Amino acid sequence: MTDISSASQPSATSAAGGTPPAAPRRGRVRSQSRWWSAWMFLAPALLLFIYFKFVPMGEGIRMSFQDVSPFLGNSWVGWDNYTTVLTNARFHQAVWNTLVLGAGQSIGAVVIGFILALLLEGPSRTLWFVRTAVFLPVVTASAVVGEIWRIIYFPSPDGFMNKLIGLVGIDPIRYLEDTSVALYAVMTVGIWSSAPYYMVIFLAGLAGVDRSLYEAAAIDGARLRHRIINVTIPALRPAIMIVSILAAVRALRIFTDVWVLTGGGPAGSTQVWMTQIYTQGFERNNLGVASAASILLLIASVLLTVVAVYFTRNKEGA
Amino acid sequence: MSQSFSPPAARKRRQQKSVEGTLDTAFGWAIGDPKSMIVRAVFCALLLFVFAGPIMTIIVGAFDLNPDPTALTLWPHNPSLENFRVATGRGIWGYFANSLFIAGFGLLLQIIVAVMAGYALARRKFYGQTVVLGIFLATMMLPEEVVAVPLAVVLGDLPLLGISIRGTIFAIILPVAASAFSILVMAAFMRDIPEEIIEAARIDGASEFRILLQVILPMSLPALGVVAIFGFNGIWDQYLLPLVAANRTDDYTITVILRSLRADIEVGTGALLAGAFLALIPSLIVYLLLQKSLVRGMTSGAIKG
């Protein structure tokens, strides 16, 4: 059983990479004749995907060109909803916030994840325990993460974080209520809850680094800093690439963290694309405008993924 | 033990090696060196405080009678179950039951769907295979956030059937029941099961379903572990879907109700922490049970959409 599990790992990579499945060895005539049974096995997945992914997407495209009103009936409005989204000041701010939050959070989480991996690399049981504990924020539901950080960020001078920064002489901050701080407070929570995820991926990468390279670096008298820059980071480049793409694509559709922590406030200073869609769609019932914004988000994430995949493929080929 | 039997030369080499332990990790941690050990211990303590500390305060705080949010602590001062009594008054167990039922039933469905589709992709040759794979990969580009708005409309009026499942648990379970990630993990694993074993079962006259259930499934336990932990975490972490699929607040899950619990000025931080505790514990248990599967799934390069 263990043999099978280790043998399967490389092929998991190829499946996710989009390689068509290897053709199974030719079966007997009897199994070939029941070609339809493959579709029977695929039916539940395909039906569920059609009903809950593709039909909603089609519906979303349709509604994005309509003025949706449940009682009067929908009417076609052409590109009006898109114009509304693209000219709306709130959406402009949301784009900016999403980009700042996404970039800061992705870079922060990848860098911190890398540092965590460096600090916690090693075979000892104690380190395994510390790694297990450090990973907890990743498996904790975002809603719970948001609530605990709201308590940590409690704005009064005797709030936990304020007491902590008070130790080094910084004045109390109203983290989630100060328009100039709130976005960074949200960013910190995002980094906190995703950095350990990237740590695990980097740890797997570190385990594969050729130890003789460290030896060679030591013989050359390279300092630790140079060793990490010249040996470790180049060896981890594929992992860093994958992790950065993952982080960036995820950051585009960030919702729960922001919604629980600030709800988009104060004064829209943490309003991101998804919270704006939610507000438009479910609080103001502007389903047409919200659909148009959703389609734009879809286009943006597909473009980002395609560009990222294209660049990583090229790098690998070179 | 083996050290005491090793000849002096070998022991000396091992000692030298332990100073050179600096070559075993990227950061060059020396294993025997006390200075290196102390620095590392300090870092570990700091990281535990930063990353595990906040989680611990939820667990401790839930059982501590602390009326205000400035009293975060790692040690209960007034151990009590009062927080849970207050939270019970707000119907917290109902929401908890909603969550457990959705996660349990949703995960079961997700596993069944993934096993079936994975089997077809990995072991059967049929016309349109590449298209099906393309469809599965495409769904990874359509996360629930992107389709949330139209999905809420579709859930209220299912096409062809013309019924509304909004406000029922099916509105949350069915959209998460098929996961391309789970299907691809199962397919990748099943592809490596030797054809001879399946062929032997086929010659014995076993039906397709029986081959899947009694031959392939027992051999696929490691992949099932990966699907289980990712599936559970994915469903338990759902926030937007339960929010938009609900008709009334009674339909909410425990993660969604936390926000209302906080906004309720009469219940205080203690009850909120009790709710957060309930929302935390199932994912904690599943994580500790399936930690190995989680790491395997993350590092096998299978990309989560």
UniProtKB/TrEMBL annotation, chain A:
Which superkingdom, per the lineage? Bacteria
The record's keywords, sorted A to Z, are: Cell membrane, Membrane, Transmembrane, Transmembrane helix, Transport
InterPro entries documented for this protein? ABC_transporter_permease (IPR051393), MetI-like (IPR000515), MetI-like_sf (IPR035906)
Which parts of the sequence belong to the ABC transmembrane type-1 domain?
Answer: 95-308
In terms of PROSITE patterns, this protein maps to: ABC_TM1
Indicate whether Membrane appears among the record's keywords. Answer: yes
**Residues covered by region (Disordered):** 1-27
| Positions of transmembrane segments | 35-54, 94-120, 132-152, 181-207, 228-249, 289-311
Q: What is this protein called?
A: Carbohydrate ABC transporter membrane protein 1 (CUT1 family)
Q: Look up and give the organism this protein is from.
A: Pacificibacter maritimus
From TrEMBL, chain B:
**Which Gene3D superfamilies does the entry link to?**
MetI-like (1.10.3720.10)
At the top level, the lineage of the source is Bacteria
Q: Which residues cross the membrane?
A: 41-63, 92-119, 131-155, 167-190, 211-232, 270-290
GO CC annotations, alphabetized: plasma membrane
Q: Name one GO biological process term.
A: transmembrane transport
List the Pfam families: BPD_transp_1
What is the protein name stated in its UniProt record? Carbohydrate ABC transporter membrane protein 2 (CUT1 family)
Q: What is the lineage of its organism?
A: Bacteria, Pseudomonadati, Pseudomonadota, Alphaproteobacteria, Rhodobacterales
